[in-house]
Amino acid sequence: MLISVFVPQYGTIEGITPAFRTFHTANEFLTTFGKKAIFEVEYVGLTEYVPANNGEYTIRTNRLLQDVGNTDLLIIPPTFGDINTGLRDNAEAIPYFRKLYHKGSRLASLCVGAFLLAETGLLNGKKCSTHWAHIEEFKEKYPDIEVEDGAVITEHENIYSSGGASSLWNLILYLVEKFSDRETAVLIAKYFALDISRDSQSQFAIFRGQRNHSDPDIQRAQDYIERKYEEKITVEDLANYVNIGRRTFERRFKEATNNTPIEYMQRVRIEAAKKFFEASRKNVSQVMYDVGYTDTKAFRDIFRKITGLTPIDYRNKFAKVSYEI
Hints:
Blueprint: E1 2-6, H1 13-32, E2 40-45, E3 49-52, E4 57-60, E5 63-64, E6 73-76, H2 83-89, H3 94-102, E7 106-109, H4 113-118, E8 127-128, H5 135-141, E9 146-147, E10 153-156, E11 159-162, H6 167-179, H7 182-191, H8 203-208, H9 216-227, H10 235-241, H11 246-257, H12 261-279, H13 284-290, H14 296-307, H15 311-318
Parallel strand pairs: 1-2, 1-6, 2-5, 6-7, 7-11, 8-9
Antiparallel strand pairs: 3-4, 10-11
Helix pairs in contact: 1-6, 1-7, 6-7
């Protein structure tokens, strides 16, 4: 998978290097544990040498943006300093962003990189995230785009965006998990001492974003899971519901959502459990049964795998109500 990190003219080194380093580190972890390195990472820009942090640093790009015929994921970091100056200095890149997206590339903006992304027009009628301090400026400049105030990560039709400052790490970790696996993302979070659970509060909203596919049968299956997650649902039940053979159904589901049906059901159930822990006084056993689990150990293991926390730790950290000990 080719990851192209755009180096904006007069960008910020703190916003440019994290994605580049993280995907390289993901490859190292994957190979360490006997898996195949899947990411090819490059810097692309308008010029071969690009100044960053008001000229304090210079980054050498691997390719000029004009020479990038296609890429799997283009990451757009934030510019440095005045937003309008950053837009003017990088205006030449906007048509290339638009062209790559229409050719099938995914786009991801980090922090105020959302302004550059918005200039393409690709976000019109869609949602995005950006730095909280620039939300009003963004809304005024791009009234056709819905800004998710306070959101850490937003995903819509193969376009990703993150909130401000360290939130960009949460988007990068999410992309690592989406295109490799959860275990690698957790290892990277530990390696860089990051709080991976920051995106778990909105993880289901991100997960529901995995509907950017054109398979109506799989969308029906997703709807069914989300309506009836507390019931015992088998893969055979889902395949019969949409009238597809099981093997074909499993293949199409994985292709469409990047998850197996079982993984998808687990994530939906765990998200429901998180909401119970956040907003009710129910104990772990009550929540476990409410979301369709009967085995305490299985529930705890799956919950921890997805959120990085035990059910009790999650409740203590995110509950909106106080608990008596």
